[in-house]
Amino acid sequence: AQSVTQPDIHITVSEGASLELRCNYSYGATPYLFWYVQSPGQGLQLLLKYFSGDTLVQGIKGFEAEFKRSQSSFNLRKPSVHWSDAAEYFCAVGLFSGGYNKLIFGAGTRLAVHP
Amino acid sequence: KAGVTQTPRYLIKTRGQQVTLSCSPISGHRSVSWYQQTPGQGLQFLFEYFSETQRNKGNFPGRFSGRQFSNSRSEMNVSTLELGDSALYLCASSPMERHTDTQYFGPGTRLTVL
User: Is the four-CA dihedral B79, B81, B82, B86 of positive or negative sign?
Assistant: First the structure.
């Protein structure tokens, strides 16, 4: 069955430090992959997505992610974290069926940023 | 363009009652999806509507239902509420003109069942 694993439930980094959030997926075909961010009390905002082509994807707010088929991974990175990046981050795989991309989400990684 | 709007933002109900949540998609978007978010189960897909037809359904009991109107606005209904239905219900809209179209999420409706 299709699934998404985010191994880190909670991560704390210092402001200005680099960040990498891990995501592994299980999917038989070429996946559609997404990273969303959720601030407290808010909905989900798309950071970036991968469908095909260049395996390094650039997103908003300075985030990027790299698709590695051999490792079934789609890790999210940011070179320098800002305090406003504190939020919960969700990796998702899109299952395209019947004209629709149903999203299967990971459990999320909560990011805390120390000043 | 205005984003996805959901009403109400907060609801408190008691067990056994029913509830209706509303979602207005981004103008021009024809697909509306619903997701349930709980601390224990995370984000789970409920169902998706396109042009007033339910195309996809998640693994939820029949107490959860929905519909979509001709203007693409959608409602979801939960009957005979249980304590476990307490959750954040998120709505997402998409043009769905291409399979690569992004889903845009609303702020959610926080449902508390007492």
Answer: positive
Q: Which of A51, A102, A105 to mutate against chain B (most B CBs within 10 Å)?
A: A102
How far does CA A51 lie from the centroid of its chain? 14
CA distance A96 to A32: 8
- The string of pLDDT tens digits covering residues B24-58 is 999 999 999 999 999 989 999 999 999 899 988 99
- Residue B2 confidence class, pLDDT cut points 50, 70, 90: confident
Q: Which residues contact A29 (CB under 8 A, 6 or more apart)?
A: none
Q: Which residue has the tokens 């459990």?
A: A107
Q: Which residues 6+ apart lie within 8 Å of A97 measured at CB?
A: B56
Amino acid at A54: D
Dist. CA B107–CA B92, nearest whole Å: 9
Quick check: A104 and B45 CB within 8 A? Answer: yes
Of A1-15, A69-83, B53-67, B89-103, the poorest mean pLDDT is in B89-103
Other C-beta atoms closer than 10 Å to the C-beta of A81 total 20
